[in-house]
Write a structure and sequence with these properties.
4-stranded antiparallel β-sheet, Alpha-Beta Plaits, about 100 residues, single chain, two-stranded antiparallel ribbon, alpha+beta, 6 strands
Amino acid sequence: MADIRYYDVILKPVITEKSMNAMADRKYTFLVHPDATKSQIKDAVEKMFAGTKVQTVNTMNLGGKNKRRGMVYGKTAKTKKAIVTLTADSKDIEIFEGL
């Protein structure tokens, strides 16, 4: 496994209708590095967003989709999503505030 730093763990936030509704329950969704563990994701969120305290981290591995262009078949890259639940006394994550 590669040496993953905390700033390499979180790739980008997931902005969908379902993830925006989950923010009312203090759950935030991110695309993360495929080799990242739950403890690495927890540390990365707490270091990148000051004042946040993570209660739980749920992850899901998403395999690549089969795609076709003419007669050529291929696969898209596999990804990993993480749903991070914050504690009640934690600060909110600011990047989601104006959405």
